[in-house]
Amino acid sequence: MLFGIFAVHSPESCPLNNVRSKRIFLEIQNKMKVNMKKFHVSKIIAFYMSVLEHEWIIILDAENAHDIERLCIAVGISSISTVKIVPMSDFKETVKRLESQN
User: Fold this and answer.
1) What fold does the segment set 2-100 form as a domain?
2) Listed residue (51, 73, 62) closest to 4, CA to CA
């Protein structure tokens, strides 16, 4: 299943402005890769950020949102950001489902 992680932090806790946040941020991608199996994440699809919006968007293929929540805690995302986990669907798959309903 695809999930989007939307993580937002304040300008004060931004890795550009905060030494502790910078340290955590620089370790996140590696920690995510190391912990993927433990938290049932089969693939990191994308990892983007909007620097001026202070938001990260991470797309994962994972089993469930509860494991993603635990992953966000374990790797430090939740220590510097507010996190929202959203189930997502691939556009092409959604179109196929809609077309098959006719």
Assistant:
1) Alpha-Beta Plaits (3.30.70)
2) 62
The H-or-E segment that residue 89 falls in is none
CA atoms within 13 A on the CB side of 68: 24
Rounded-to-integer distance, Cα 28 and Cα 23, Å: 9
- Tell me the pLDDT tens digit for each residue of 76-91: 999 999 999 999 998 9
Q: Decide: 46 and 59 in contact? Cβ < 8 Å.
A: yes
Q: Residue 72: name the closest of 8, 16, 19 by CA.
A: 8
- What pTM value is reported for the model? 0.87
93 CB-near residues (< 8 Å, 6+ apart): none
Query: What residues are paired with 87 via a beta bridge?
Result: 3
